Amino acid sequence: MPHKMTITGSATRPLREYDRYVAFDMREKGSPAAPKGLKKSTFISYTVFVAKKAFNKTGLTKKSIMHEKILIQGEPTLDIPIDECPGEIGIICFQITVLRIKTIKKPMSQKIRKKPNKRLQLLSRKKNKSL
Question: Sign (positive/negative) of CA torsion 26, 29, 31, 35?
Fold first, then answer.
């Protein structure tokens, strides 16, 4: 069974184009808290290989790939020549997704919510009673 990997981040080097695919490099670090008794992981460089058709569907360009956060799902490979794979691990990409940064907007009713003034409430009650 093949190994599946998921990595997220942005490209660390410019996009390289080949006949049927594009390649770019990513550098990622594991979790900051390793299980007890194990060493923390260090940075690992990956070279990601994506079919041109799949890459074009993402809407990424040579310039934008360096600034967008990307999610890659694929499997490692050791069969690609070193001159095409400068990273420590080569990843054949089966799915590529651009992660959009979500901004949470609060509805206006939550932004302007004020605490009621107790004095004003008492005054309005007295006026209503007298009427």
Answer: positive
